[in-house]
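We keep the chain:
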Amino acid sequence: MLTDQTKRFYDPNFTVSEEYKAALPDLQNGPSSLIEGANVPIQQVGISNFKLPLQFKTREGNPIMLETSVDGYVSLDAGKKGINMSRIMRTFYKFRDRIFSIDVLEDILKAYKEDLESRESFLRLSFSYPMLKDSLRSDMKGYQYYSVCFEGRLDSYDRFFKHMTLNFEYSSACPCSYELAEHARTERGVAAIPHSQRSIAEVTVALRDEFLVEDLVQVCRNALKTETQVMVKREDEQAFAELNGAYQKFVEDAARLLYEELDSYNSIRDFVVRCAHLESLHSHDAVSRICKGLPNGLR
């Protein structure tokens, strides 16, 4: 119910003075007596999924502008009511004109810690990264899109940890199904088609040195060989069938092939991989997980 002193009215010409701004209530920075629940530290508090276009560094040297979803968090000490959530965005926007690689995250995380007076900070950038891919035999090109995350963390000792995650789609032709199909053809003269399926490798790497999205895509291509195709004519479809025949793999094979390739790069300090074969034979998926196995490393 409105009182005599209250009215429903928005004044577009109202100007905020310094005195008026100073008088505005600020519960986030209020006394510890305002804290609800246990007065304990919170490891991460912030905002998730704010979006903006960012420029990303490419192997060719020309930056590419991509819509990016950002998660930004800082730690909160006991005795503090909360943080200024909008400052997470405002701090990030100071860097919006930078050309992003994963190492740029360190500068933003330092700014987070300073602007929000926190001990630790965390940042995740999620985006879809396009790469032009050649067809196998027909001399066409098409864009393949990769789901990518950059993650950075700055701990209380200002140590910077950086991770990249890539989802890589490939085809997996089952060796067992191939042998059974061949047996039916040769022994009984019966046409049989071995099953294969679209598969996804989720690869997370902890990095020492600069590593671009194109670099991690190439790692996966080298290991698995049978990336899904964009542009396809009949000659490409036949080539893909031959490719799958040459590089048949169980889900366990895919994990070990990625391990072997990832372990050969000095820039990659640690890694964890999840391979999922979205079965065309079964009503469930086949999954294999593998990590480098460093003490206290990624799991």
Summary: The beta strands are 42-56, 64-76, 99-100, 121-134, 141-154, 160-173, 196-207, 268-277, 286-291. The CA atoms of residues 170 and 227 lie 4 Å apart.
